[in-house]
Amino acid sequence: MVQLNPTHVKAVWDAWNIRGMVIISLSIQTILIILAPLRKRTPNRFLALVLWLSYLLADWSAIFAVSLIARNQGKDSKQDDPPQDKKLMALLAPFLLLHLGGPDTITAYSIEDNALWLRHLLGLALQVMSGAYVVFKSLPNSLWLIILLLFIAGVFKYLERTISLYLASSDKFRGSMFKASDSESDETHNPEKEDESVHLQISTREYVRERRPFKLEKPSGDLTHLDILQFAFWFFNSFKSLLVNNIFSSDQRDESREFFSKLKDEEALRILEMELSFLYAGLYTKVSVLHSWVGAVTRTITLGSLTAAFCIFHYRPKKVDKFPGADTVIIYTLFLVAIVLDLASILMVIPSDWTIAIFSRLNEDGQDSGSQIDPALNWFLGLKKLRWKKQKCCEGRAEHEVLNTPFLLKRWAGSIKMFNFIAYSVNANIERIHDAKGKKGRCVWEAILLPFKCIIYIFKKLCGGIIIVFHVSNQYIKNVINKRSGTNLVARYCIVIAEFLIVIPHHLTVIGNYITKFLGIKDLLAKNSLKNSVHSEPLTKELWAFIFTRLQCKRQRLDRKERSKTKPGKKGWASSNSKLEIMDPEWLMRYIADVDYARSLMLWHIATELCYQEEASPTENCDDRQFSKILSDYLMYLLVMQPKLMSEVAGIGKIRFRDTLAEAERFYKRKLIENSRDVKRATEEILSVSIQEDPRLFKGNHSKSVLFEASELAKKLKGVNDSGENMWRIVSKVWMELLFYAACNCDATARMNQLSKGGELLNFVWLAMAHLSLEY
User: Fold this and answer.
1) What is the pLDDT of residue 420?
2) How far is CA 684 from the centre of its chain?
3) Alpha helices, DSSP H, located in 350-420
4) What average pLDDT does the chain have?
5) If you ran DSSP here, which 8-state letter would residue 139 be given?
């Protein structure tokens, strides 16, 4: 049997703790540079978890390794230590400073991290002092020149990250826009005297033209891929302070509004996609610094110092004799990986959208023929264009074009998350409207997941069976022993012991509930249980066209009111939905204008599902029906699964959802359809309840549930067709208004955080409304 020798373990730890931490730090940097660019393309939870852990461990591992080196340098050398050990450790310290600079592909995990730029600046100063102490304790050191070059590279790398965080902070955004506005209004503006800080903004390109007002005009023909990129970059530079809710000048609003009013729906989608991609790059990467003169200088110094240090080390004589073989391999690995990662970052930056936008010229008036390289740039950008695939919806009545861009060419996830209340309440399987993977792909995917689903199902059943056995055994033992024990003390003691053992699961459950409540993670665990009922639908071209056309129509109506000098109504959810352009809207006011936003959303979501589960009439507009269903489930997903994003409009949405779910479960239990997995039957039972029936039979007096109120709404909607109107057209208009109101009033910080999680349709709607000067 192998015995663990504490002395041997300590010796291994003393020999490899620093080297091991350096290798771990290098591995984390490699993970970040490879995986970080993927997070804007997918909301995958496993990828987010890996990146979150890597992001947190990256700084910790490097700082911990530096502290180990400093501790090692402060100790007296032992007789069995290698003669060059302290000198070699001093060489590792600047590598760790280089790691603290982080990769170019991620500077912040969330937008709140940008506010910590001052902390990172202080960290830079402290790490430089720590590194200087390590080098000082190793003197005299023949590796001083290599260490100095690596220190220069590390300091500039860390400085790049700190500046990137500073430029992406909200205060800097707000201040930069005020300076930009002042400079634009000054007709005697001299670019040579411009404040240097302006050149370090997220927008690094300045269009220095003649002293004439800039007039943004859409070219007469279709926009090319290069036109799309240039206009997106221009709008990004002009409207980036939307992040901090700045107010724009009337000229900016008018130009943007006129331009977007003339766009086709797909052109608008492509411009918004690129604009949001620029926002992501500016907020979460080093691209803002790398495309400035500061970035060019720091990257030249960094790469030059690294290369020079490597060459000096490589051509150093007798290094194999002075340093152990393992240490030589580690040093070579650190050098080569650092140089390769730097070159890889440069290769990622060169063909990026940002680089092309900076070095190409904006076609301001639509008459410029462009440069000679424009056709090549246009071809390259065409590789990342939106790709659509025709696909029939599951009902087979309509064919839509779904977004099907290859994963590595995406600028966002291109999908819409959906959550259905009734399907969740009866534990039903997910029903998809469109399936981008196709039947074959879906079958393969289900086959891959089947073993895991079976294991989880067996585990749940096994745990449930054990609990039932414990409960039944407890009752049986108590009954039997109570009858036969009499005054037998031994039997009585057996009863007490048996009862204690049998109620252990109950005690564990109570303790678990207490711990989750104490740690404040009860809501998080409940949210995770809801995620199993969430699925994605690909964005369809028809849905986006429906949304954008609706926005353009609203803009046109507002323009007509402005020309006729009609006084606009007050803002707010109730007032914004007072006119839905239907023949008899009075009865709808009870469900729209007279209720708060969260209640209205819940009401219309359940009512939409109750109507949707009925067989579609051949005369119905299939598009309106599908769009209503998608937007209903999407906004329900935002309300339930994205509470931070909807915090400005949700109100007591969480309480209302909980009470409605509890009411539905009581109702299903009474009707014997609990966990039936049958959405259609559940909707039929809900609709069968008489309006005159007392709702207190199913809910308490203080409940915020809207289940049967939604049933009443669904019945009234079904009567709309009899009056000659289209029910689904009305429902789709209501969902448009709910979507627009949420887009304008959702939390700005949470909205920007979604850019690093695959993006949201809500971001596109919000930005389109901002460009069209639409407010709620």
Assistant:
1) 92
2) 37
3) 353-359, 374-382
4) 78
5) -
